[in-house]
Structures are given as C-alpha cells and as structure tokens.
Amino acid sequence: MYHGRFSGTHYDAGYKWGRLLLKKGKKLDHCPTFELTEDKYAFARDCAIQYQTYFPEILTEIKGIADGNDVPVEVLQGLLFCMYCFEFDNKCTCFAFSTDDEVVFARNSDFLVSIEKLYMNCLYNLNGGFSFNGNTTAFVEMEDGVNQHGLAVGLTFVYPKRRKPGLNAGMLLRYLLEKCKTTGAAVEALHRLPIASAQTVTIADKSGRIVVVECNPKDIVVIPPRTGEQFVATANNFNSEQMQPYRNPDIDDWQSADRYQTARTALAQRKDYTVAFAQDVLAGKYGFMCQYDRRKNADTVWSVVYDLGRKQIWRVEGNPARKHFKEDTRMKLD
User: Fold this and answer.
1) What DSSP character marks residue 88?
2) Contact 155, 172 (CB under 8 A)
3) What local confidence, expressed as pLDDT, does residue 251 receive?
4) Residue 141 burial (CB < 10 Å; 0-12/13-18/19+)?
5) By the 8 A CB rule, do 51 and 141 touch?
6) 201, 232 Cβ separation under 8 angstroms
C-alpha cells in the first residue's frame, strides 16, 4: 500500500504528487481496469461541468496532477470521472455500530490482487478543507476515511444500471470527508449533490449517529438502525424496498449477499460490541467475509476500523484473516 501526504493548496498538492510519480517513471495516462473510449470522454466532459459548480477544488487538484505528470487533464478527468459509472469491479463490505460505550465504523475493501501494490492510504490537509485519513484503489477519490471531526464514511459499489453527469462514488466520499462534520451534514450533502453512479454510503460520526445511504442518479434512501438494533450493515447491493428495481442478480458481486448476511447476523447476535469484535467480523471469524481465492485475482486488499469514541484508526494492509490490525496514530481526531 502506497502512503501519500497532501498539503497546501489543491493545485500544489496535486502537482507535487504528479511530479513525484513522473520522476519515478510512472505516467497517469491509462487505467489498468478499463479503457478510455469516446463515450467516456464525453461523459467526463459533462461531469466536469457539475464539478465546476459543486466541487471546483477537485478540478484544480486534477489540473495540478496533470501538469506535474505531463499528461492531458482530459485524460485524468476521463479516468477519474468515469470510475464507478461504467464497469463493475471493486467489492466491499461496511458496517457500523453505536452504543453507550462504542461508536465504530468498519470496512473491508475487496479488489484485484494484480494491482494491490497501487492502492493508497492518504493523509490530506489541504487549505480550505477538513483534514482526513483515507484509503483508495485509485487517487483523488476515496473509498473510506475519517476526518478530523470524527466523521467516518465508506462506500460499497453497486452495479450501475443508471448514470448521469455528476459526482461518482469515490468523489462523493472525498467531498464528505473534506466538507462535512456530522452524519446529518453528510446526508444533506448527498441529497444536494448530483450523483453519477450507484452505491451505498455508510456514515458514522462521533456523536453516535449511524446510517447507510443507498443512492443512484435517480433515488436516495437513508437507512438508520432498525428498531431494537444498534448497527447498520451493507455490501455490494441495495437492500431497501425502494431500491430493489436497481438490483442486478446476474452479475458476479463476489458473494455480496453472503458478506451482508455474515455482518448482519454477527451484529444481531452480539450485544457487547467492541473494536476487537469488529476486527473479527472483518477477518471472517463469523462467516464468509474475506475468504477469497487469490489465485482468481480476488482478495480483501485492506481492512479498516475507525473507533470514533477513542479517536483511533486501525488498519490492515492486506487480508485481515492473514495479517494483523495496526494502529495509525499519524492524524489526531478532534
């Protein structure tokens, strides 16, 4: 897992990173998981209009990366804005629980073994935005993270039956980490922002409010804990009644239903929630969660637990069934 630090202005942070990669002989002019085509370039151009309105800082950061890496900005926009909107690749599981004693967010990121050395952990501290610690299989976009105010968010990708110009899953997460302090503010932002892709967003803040938001370009559903429960959980599909028409049972979602059921059953049967328990669920000790066959180019490539009560970050850079969680103390939470 590559570790990056980003500070200063959005443009300067992007330029420094793009130039660093160039000096190491790495050009950001292609994506290892999909090809750029004219329809993707056209979609990205339409998305850029929405970013200019709702998140112009990201356009500035991407321009900095492009200048530093000596690649056309249109290529980077095509790569970044089209992710999550066309192909169905990465898989993941999220859950959170909130009790009088514990507020914990937990996530497994499942993706391709062949590019696992490219995945990133990022510390962002940019002018005009909140600091955050996040993880991603790409760059600029985030897939989970926690910011200085104790807001933790994580995505799970859902097959994109619909798309329209807007912010995709990874950019939505980046926006929430950089702009929002609470679960309420994050939910409000998701209702306000134009959404390009299909995903769930699990959100938890230090006050203990936890929700799963299921959303796509047309609909959005906010799911709090069920009556009598103190947790939420999700994987790579929609579970609310309203979002059922957007499910696709024919695609390979890496046993999403099994992972979802494992998390829900473990959480429903357990009453004394702890960080160690969350780590054990992610490690597959309560059922199928991360037990992939790496020979098929699939595995859990990182796991993370954000302990919002104790202001701690725990991460495994790899599969939690084989590696141990380690605390990341580099960023202090308020």
Assistant:
1) -
2) yes
3) 66
4) buried
5) no
6) no
